[in-house]
Structures are given as structure tokens and as C-alpha cells.
Amino acid sequence: EVQLQASGGGLVQAGGSLRLSCAASGFTFDDYAIGWFRQAPGKGRERVSCISSNDGTTYYADSVKGRFTISSDNAKNTLYLQMNSLKPEDTAVYYCAADFICLLGTMGYGADYWGKGTQVTVSS
Fold first, then answer.
1. Rounded distance, CA 49 to CA 63, Å?
2. What number of CA atoms fall less than 13 Å from residue 21's CA on the CB side?
């Protein structure tokens, strides 16, 4: 059974940093692309970043490029999202997900597996 558990969210001031973690079980990162989505109140789901299962290619949304870094520890089956220079518009529930399209330059909107989200709130 595929399970994804995100953690690390919290309240931070603008300009601050947070690191999200996603503990995965039931599959390995060689099986599926894995990544992060977010959803702010009253808005639709937004793609954030992903890592391809094929060659480790990463994708970043323009809104986070240069500020967020995705990484994985395959031995621990854990995905990370280092978020620096946070802005109030980064406030959202962040979800880790697996098994979706993740290619250089594009990331699918849908995923077959989702974890429960972790709340990130950035105050101005």
C-alpha cells in the first residue's frame, strides 16, 4: 500500500525558511515520480516541484524557482522541499504526491497517490 506522510509545515515570517519532508512507503522513488503540490484558500491546486523517477530530472514552478529546492534521500524513501525567501503568497496547504508526469519543463496536475497536507503560513 502506497503511503505518503508530509510534515514540516508551520508559521514563518516573510523571508524565512522551512523544510518540508514527505516519508513514503509502499514504493521506491525508482518506481514513480514524486513531488509537491499546494493549494491556497479559495484557489485551485498548484504544481510546485517534482523529481522524475527516470533520471532525477527536476521541475519547478516559475513562482518558486530560485527559492525552493526539491531533493530526496532514496535510502530513507523521504522527499524534501527546502523553502527559502518565503513570501505571503506561498501560504497554502502543501501536499506530497506520487505517480504523475514529471519531465523537464513540465509537471502533471494529477497524481495517483496523495498524502495528507501540511499547512505553511507565511506572515507579512
1. 10
2. 8
Q: Length of the chain in residues, anyone?
A: 124
Which phi and psi angles does 89 have, rounded to 5°? Answer: -75, -5
User: Amino acid letter at 35?
Assistant: G
How far is Cα 60 from Cα 65, in angstroms, rounded to an integer? 6
Q: 4 is written with which cell numbers? A: 505518503
Report the helix count and the strand count for the chain, using DSSP H and E. Answer: 0, 13
Residues 103-116 as b/e (b if ≥16 CB within 10 A, e otherwise) read eeeebbeebebbbe
In the structure grid, which three cell numbers stand for residue 28, read together?
521506491
Question: Quick one: residue 114, left, alpha or beta (phi over 0 = left, psi -120 to 50 = alpha)?
Answer: beta
- Integer-rounded Cα Rg, in Å, for the chain is 13
Strand 118-123 relative to strand 10-13, pairing: parallel
- Tell me the pLDDT tens digit for each residue of 9-43: 999 999 999 999 999 999 999 899 999 999 999 99
